[in-house]
Design brief:
This protein is an alpha+beta fold and 59 residues long. The chain has one domain. 29% of the residues lie in helices and 29% in strands. It is built from one helix and two strands. A hairpin with a 5-residue loop joins strand 1 and strand 2.
């Protein structure tokens, strides 16, 4: 069973990054179950905003 220490570390790292760069990175965690209702994995979605993306010039 997890102690949640990993998520504490991730949250602290994201807080520090936000304080330094003023960029908010967010994540969501969803448990995945198979058709029998048994645990089958974990889905993690991370959202990182793009900043200062140069324009692409097409010829």
């Amino acid at each position: 069973m997890s102690t949640g220490k990993g998520l504490q570390i991730v949250n602290e790292a994201l807080r520090i990054y936000f304080n330094l760069k003023k960029v908010k990175i967010v994540y969501g965690i969803t448990d995945i179950y198979n058709t029998d209702g048994e645990p089958d994995g974990t889905k993690v979605k991370i959202t990182v905003p793009f900043l200062n993306v140069p324009k692409v010039i097409r010829k």
